[in-house]
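Page 42, continued from yesterday. The earlier attempt failed because a stray header line got pasted into the input along with the sequence. Redoing it now with the clean sequence only.
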Amino acid sequence: YSPEILDNEIDVTSVTFAASGLAAPQVQIETDAGYGHFSDGNTRLNADAGVWYVWKWPKRTLMFGGAVRYLTFSEDLDDGYFDPSNLIAAVGSLRSSGAIGSSKWEYEAAVEAGAQWYTFNEDKATGKPLLNLYGLVARPLPHGVSFQIYSSYGNSSTASGPGFNSFTAGARLRFTIGG
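This time it went through. Structure tokens are written below.
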């Protein structure tokens, strides 16, 4: 978020429901739908759906497919956040995950490329190129904890607003219930 949204003291309350699983032995589907309420009176609806063909090896998985994303806000308020109407993004996606050699380290990697269409501040973006990259290496530790190092880059307007790129990097400890 921007300093402007913080200055305006905008609070966001949101909920998202998601489901994923194998629709066939080598076909993964993922879908989600969400709603958000902003303290300035704005509301957000979002939905994603994707399908991937899955190749599995003993220590690795490779997935190739596509996804469609939808995002819309009830109003364009200029309160410091990207609130488009009818954003639609279509992407091709390549994902891989698995073990790194014979070590206990694991990796995840993803590349998405596509296009996005939306209206924002009365301006229409048609077929704007979209690129997202993600990488993670992780080392499982005892008791369901893992140490993770991650990085991502994207020019998706849903993540950073139009005309901006986003870059994140970090390290974290992640706990998995029952892990």
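Notes: The two ends are 33 Å apart (CA to CA).
Reminder to self: strip header lines before submitting.
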